[in-house]
Amino acid sequence: MGVAFESFTSELSGQQVSLLADTVQYFADAPKLLSIPDEQGNRVAVPILPDTMSSLLQVFPEGAEQEKRSFGFRWEAGDDEDKGYLVIILPDGNVLRQVTELSRFSAV
């Protein structure tokens, strides 16, 4: 499959991340590619799991629903072309790495 998506940055508000987390949780048993806006407003299909979205949600303190923060997204291929890592750079510079099997995800 090659690269799942090209690296991009997304400015997301606490409210957006909360809605995305709810969506991912709804599809927890049958993962879907989540559509995340890049800096130009284009939608990028990202294979993201509920635990990873929960980590993104924790970046926002209570009451910061309208505050926007910058997240970096990139794909690191694994040994098998179907497997790799979703890498997310959090606003504070910390990095999340989600082991990902692309064939588990389908389009919404």
From TrEMBL:
It comes from the Bacteria. This is Uncharacterized protein. It comes from Brevibacillus ruminantium.
